[in-house]
Amino acid sequence: MAHTRNAVTAIVAKDVRLFLRDRFYLFITVLGLVMFGGLFWVLPATVEEQLPVGVHLPGAEALLEAGLDDAGEEGLDVTVFRSAEALEEAVAAGDDLVAGLDFPADFLAAAAAGRPTTVRVLIAGQAPEGLQGALAAGVREIAHELAGNPLPVTMPELDEMVLGVDRAGDPVALREQLRPLLIFVVLLMEMFALASLVAIEIAQRTAAAVLVTPARVGDLLAAKALLGTGLAFGQAVLIALVTGTLVHAPALILLALLLGALLVTGFGLMAGATGQDFVAIVFWSVLFFIPLMVPAFAVLFPGTPALWVQALPSYGLVETLVRTTTRGAGWAEVWPYLAVLAAWCAVAFAAGTAVLARRVARA
Amino acid sequence: MAVTDEPALRADDLHYAYGDRVAVDGVSLSVSRGEILGLLGPNGAGKSTTIKMLIGLLPPAAGRIEVLGMPMPQQRMQIQARIGVVFEEKNLYPNLSGRENLAFFARLFGLADVDLDALLERVGLGTRGRDRVSGYSKGMRQRLTVARALVNRPDVLFLDEPTDGLDPVSARSIRALIRAEAERGVAVLLTTHDMYEADALSDRVAFINEGRILALDAPERLKLTHGQRSVRVRRQVGDTVEETVVALDGEELRALIGRDGLLTIHTEEATLEDVFVDFAGRGLE
Description:
The structure holds two protein chains of two kinds. By secondary structure, chain A is mainly alpha-helical. Chain A has helices at residues 2-21, 23-42, 61-66, 68-73, 84-93, 107-113, 131-147, 174-203, 206-210, 217-242, 250-274, 278-298, 307-310, 315-327, 331-362, and strands spanning 51-56, 76-80, 99-102, 120-123. The mean pLDDT of chain A is 82. Chain B is globular, with a radius of gyration of 22 Å. At the A-B interface, helix 1 and helix 9 of A face helix 3 of B.
């Protein structure tokens, strides 16, 4: 037992030294941490919910400007224009406005008299889908109100109930949504580094030299697994600290990151064992990399991910991170995801060590 | 130290096949303490596979191995603590220094008190020990692999083509190290396809071809017993010099010596390669 501990420690120490001396992996590791950490803080922390809309209503400019505060509360950022041409130019430029309402000079009088009139709704190319319809409905409602004709419906009383954390007025910012993706990319980068260390050990037949000492195949596997998990976990924790992820349920997130590190280590051992050279390592790593990334991308889009996405090994990790950091979920809500992730870890780890043991024995 | 009768390594009827291809087919050999046994054969003859089984990297399909009185692979760990191996490849960590390579392997053996500097000095790397192996020449790397094999002061040394592709100076220094280890009482098994190396280093030589041992004896005895000893006779015949090669113990030689114009007589000994060709019907390349 003491000898196994000694052999594992010696191999891990040697591999850490080799890792630190490999300028390429050291460079991409540091670059990854700096870049992803920086990217998180550069991304906007809040979501801009006010729609910038331009309005041209001849003769009522002063009235409109007086009512701008009310518009802000309704989620509109209204700019009053003195001419139709200026409004059209501003909307066409698309820099500040997503839409414009160009009322005719006789709009108020015509609407109040119930006469037909035409309002131009100008929509910028990048405006959200549905904005045109919403603005048209708004204009019709204003016309009805001015004509003294209330809408032909009676609004029902609403009993609103928010389930989960009430994020009204505080929607999930892009950087919050990207957080699992950033952490996961760091984990996957370590999968690549581990795969490379393993493949080099086999290709250069240094593994054979190790195995004619009292060190066993199990010692070599344990050392590689420890190193891979340590590297991946350490850096995932670092990026989690940089992005402020650990302020939400730290124990839960640390467990999720540890399981994630074990998962990528399993895949890293597989990629390393199958890889013969640098190109092969890249090929096998990318082959695992892409499907593992899918759940992290899926959270960027609204709605529940497809069943096949939920079946991917990394889904449990991503879902745990998302639910914990953006919805304040606790153990009770995420344990099923952690359980599935742990099961996938066991599978990936068993497969990785089996493939590597077989490869080392043949080396 | 003289060669003792006590075998440090014994292999009986070893067999191994890679799929349908038989690599080792009934190899038996033994090496005593202080003895150097050369396993001589062409590439693909089964030398490396035999060594891999003896050092515990491959389990034999059949046969028995005993190293230092312990069965392999049952006592693999205890055996591997007392053997040293030089692989055909220079399988070192290029991003570690020579000293760090040795220190790592010393740790694997659980040895904390190895004088690594003395070991590096012994293989002629005393001044380069702290340089990274990536900057070493082929000969330096090979000397480092020999140093690595000696890090645990082994009782049995396995050397797979230890001087293959080296310049004469590096090869000579490695041979000197091997001889010194044998004199210390280490049993040495070396594989080579270089007949000069086998002849110069080995107390006994085993010819191996297509996975089988064809002959096993002292190089001198093999050459005397199986080789054709001959004599090269040069005579002045008129204005020309006539050269004739005849058998050492034949009537023809007596007849030649009796004639006029005798210039020189040189005895010629068969080489190990000649003997190998006799046995295997093919050369060593």
